[in-house]
């Protein structure tokens, strides 16, 4: 099998339903999702040998498959094929976010990305996911897409934040609070 096809040598690429320039918003969006997937793979490689993260590693691998689904849904230009990304995937992320928020120490202030190597990689994945989300918003303004992909990516960035905090907590590494942060996270009961 040959990896190169030479079909993109003129700056075009194929989507489901047509060809576009390689800098098209659609390609930028699913390409940035691919970047996020790669950083998640890096985080997974850092965590996989530690038994404390067996659950998290299984989730990250599932997420990697789902990110391929997100990219595939965004590569459909005519909207005629059935989409793969659905609200159940978003709900599953929400459930894991809620569990991880309960496991990590209480959070009141902004924190600096980092701590352990695994947490730092998850924070990097979070920021790339946020960039992908911005690309999807731009695409959504210009063309129809599966709207659930945007919800999924929004929740994924929150999931990655929560997961990074849990990695640090399980390792006994404290998150570093941003030193000039006001108290920005409160329980709903505490809101003035």
Please provide a written account of the structure.
- The chain has 192 residues and is mostly helical.
- It has one domain (12-190): Hypothetical Protein Ta1238, Chain: A (Up-down Bundle), CATH 1.20.1200.10.
- 58% of the residues lie in helices and 4% in strands.
- It has 5 helices and 2 strands, in the order ββααααα.
- The protein has helices at residues 25-47, 54-74, 87-103, 117-142, 147-171, and strands at 12-15, 18-21.
- It has a two-stranded antiparallel ribbon.
- The longest helix is centred in the last third of the chain and has 26 residues, at 117-142.
- It is elongated, with a radius of gyration of 18 Å.
Mind summarizing the main beta sheet?
2 strands, antiparallel
CATH topology: Hypothetical Protein Ta1238, Chain: A
Cα separation of the termini: 64 Å
**What is the string of SSEs from the N terminus onward?**
EEHHHHH
DSSP strand count: 2
Number of domains: 1
Q: Extract low-pLDDT stretches.
A: none
**What is the CATH superfamily?**
Cobalamin adenosyltransferase-like
Judging from the principal axes of the Cα atoms, what is the shape? elongated
Q: Report the structural category.
A: mainly alpha
* Helix proportion: 55-70%
Mean pLDDT: 91
CATH class: Mainly Alpha
Biggest sheet: strand arrangement: 1-2
* DSSP summary: helix tally: 5
* Radius of gyration computed on alpha carbons: 18 Å
CATH-level-2 architecture? Up-down Bundle
């Amino acid at each position: 099998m040959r990896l190169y096809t030479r079909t993109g040598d003129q700056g075009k690429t194929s989507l489901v339903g047509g060809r576009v320039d390689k800098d098209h918003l659609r390609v930028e969006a699913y390409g940035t999702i691919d970047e996020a997937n790669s950083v998640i793979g890096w985080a997974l490689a850092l965590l996989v040998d530690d038994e404390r993260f067996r659950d998290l590693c299984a989730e990250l691998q599932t997420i990697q498959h789902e990110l391929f689904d997100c990219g595939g849904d965004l590569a459909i230009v005519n909207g005629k094929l059935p989409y793969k990304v659905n609200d159940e995937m978003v709900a599953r992320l929400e459930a894991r976010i809620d569990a991880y928020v309960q496991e990590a120490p209480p959070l009141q202030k902004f924190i600096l990305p980092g701590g352990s190597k695994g947490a730092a990689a998850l924070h990097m994945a979070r920021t790339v996911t946020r960039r992908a989300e911005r690309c999807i918003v731009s695409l959504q303004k210009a063309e129809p897409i599966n709207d659930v992909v945007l919800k999924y990516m929004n929740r994924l960035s929150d999931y990655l934040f929560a997961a990074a905090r849990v990695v640090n907590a399980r390792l006994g590494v404290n998150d570093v609070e941003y030193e000039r942060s006001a108290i920005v996270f409160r329980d709903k009961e505490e809101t003035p």
